[in-house]
Amino acid sequence: MKILAFSFSLISFHSLACSCMGYDIGEAFEDYPVVFSGVVESIDTIKAKEDGWFEYSKLKSVTLVVDHSYKGMTAEKIKVTTRMDSAACGFPFEEKVKYVVFATPDENGLFVGSCGPTIHMEKREEYYEQERLRITRFLLKQIGS
């Protein structure tokens, strides 16, 4: 019986873990209805209902001051939600940091997950820099189009 209970706990854990596939930046730009850059002004925790869940979830509500809209919105400030941690595909936003954000509408407004091309604009670690440059170069081409 202990083995059976342990097996179920592994299955449950696995179903909650975030697993991302790669993306093509051009396709992602077409697929995401809202794309902008901005600086995080504040991060709050909220309780919200998500489709397919019976209980309310804790989510991060992130307010960003928009400095450039690439598509889908014209607001000067915008709120997005994300899950609480990366294991649940939440994006690790930090206050006073600039991001390029790719968001999708959901029942709570706009949602940002860690599997999309949303990216921290100030990180310069080697493993991150190529991806940051790839996204920013693509977006610069969109401005010129």
**Beta fraction:** 35-45%
Quantity of strands, as a count? 6
Distance between the termini: 63 Å
* C-alpha geometry: globular
Radius of gyration computed on alpha carbons: 17 Å
Return the structural class: alpha+beta
- Ranges with pLDDT <50 over ≥5 residues? 1-15
* Helicity level: 25-40%
Q: Could you describe the largest sheet, including whether it forms a barrel?
A: 6 strands, antiparallel
Q: Please, what is the average pLDDT?
A: 84
The helix/strand series, from N terminus to C terminus, equals HHEEEEEEH
Q: What is the count of helical runs?
A: 3
Description:
By secondary structure, the protein is of the alpha+beta class. 28% of the residues lie in helices and 35% in strands. Strands 1, 2, 3, 4, 5 and 6 form a six-stranded antiparallel sheet that branches. The relative contact order is 0.20.
Features:
single chain, 145 residues, alpha+beta, six-stranded antiparallel sheet, 3 helices, 6 strands, disordered N terminus
Question: Secondary-structure map with pairings?
Answer:
Elements: H1 2-16, H2 25-31, E1 34-48, E2 57-71, E3 77-83, E4 98-106, E5 109-111, E6 119-120, H3 126-144
Antiparallel strand pairs: 1-2, 1-4, 2-3, 4-5, 4-6
Please give a quick description of this structure.
This protein has 145 residues and is an alpha+beta fold. 28% of the residues lie in helices and 35% in strands.
